[in-house]
Structures are given as C-alpha cells and as structure tokens.
Design a protein that fits this description.
This is Zinc-finger domain-containing protein. This protein has 173 residues and is an all-alpha fold. The chain has a domain of 49 residues. The termini are far apart.
Length: 173
C-alpha cells in the first residue's frame, strides 16, 4: 500500500476504532513514519474533542427564545425591495455570480456587436444614388475642358469663309 491509499483509509481507522483495520493499512502504518505521525496526530485531536463538553444554556434561554419568535412573527412583513436589499447586504455574492457572469457576457456581446456593426457600416457605406440631372451636371463639370475645345472649334468653323454652296474655302497664302 502506498501513502495515497493509506490517506483514503485513514478516516476509517480514526472514526471507527471498533472495526477491524485492513492488514495492508496496518502494515503501511508500521513501515511509513510520516503516515504514523499523521495517524497519531489525528488520534490526539479526536481525544481532545472527546473531552470537550458543550456549555449549558442559561436558565431563561427557552423563554427568551419564545419572546423573540413572537416578536419576529408580529413584525410587519418586508416589502419586495427591502427583502432584496437585505439579501444583497447579508449575502456573500455567490448566489449572484452566475447571473452577473451572464449579464456581463450579454453586455459584452451586445456592445461588441454594436461596435462591429458601426465600424462595418461606416467603412462600407455606399454613396447615395444621385438623380440623373445631378449625374449629368457632374459629368459636364468633369468634361468642361473638352466642351470648351468643341465650342472653340465650332466658332472657328463659323468664322471661316465659305463659297456659294456653303463649303469652307481654304484661304490663299
């Protein structure tokens, strides 16, 4: 038997002294000084606990307890808010840990999702569809130079001399 197996049988050896201990546990107890020391320490602790006696209650304990019970029963019932506040003030917080974890997780998911959605929308916004008139005006602005050149050519053609049939005549040099 090893020390771990003996540790598992130690409570049975201490708490049930009338029962027969296993031979392997007794053999390990004789061979292993640390386990023997721990066994003796437990025996001394339980021997001290066996000598302890509970103190006697005061002679008027029962009467005082009855009075307190009647006072508590006669007291007005707490409202919902008061009972919640009392519970919050007097508890250790272990009851609320799962609820707090859930609430914080939900807040993190919603907040993170909202932030991601805002970033996605801001970077992927499509320009608003402009009307056909606005698109035409924007095209004219972008091609203003080309239109000026066309107008100049038109003016040059209008200023050239023509014959009777309307065909332009080349000037003689």
């Amino acid at each position: 038997m090893n020390c771990t197996d003996f540790q598992n049988e130690l409570p049975d050896l201490i708490l049930t002294p009338g029962a027969k201990p296993s031979l392997a546990a007794v053999a390990h107890l004789k061979e292993c000084p640390p386990c023997t020391e721990e066994y003796l320490s437990f025996q001394q602790t339980f021997a001290v606990l066996d000598t302890w006696t509970a103190p006697e209650p005061s002679p008027y304990f029962d009467q005082k307890m009855q009075v307190r019970l009647r006072e508590e029963q006669a007291a007005p019932k707490m409202g919902w808010f008061e009972s919640v506040m009392t519970r919050l003030q007097l508890n250790t917080g272990r009851q609320f840990r799962p609820a707090m974890i859930g609430a914080l997780s939900l807040a993190l998911i919603v907040g993170g999702g909202s932030f991601a959605g805002l970033n996605y929308n801001a970077s992927h916004q499509q320009p608003a569809q402009a009307s056909a008139t606005i698109n035409d005006l924007q095209i004219l602005d972008r091609n203003e130079q080309a239109f000026e050149q066309l107008d100049q050519l038109q003016q040059d053609e209008d200023n050239q001399p023509t014959d009777d049939s309307g065909t332009p005549v080349q000037p003689a040099n």
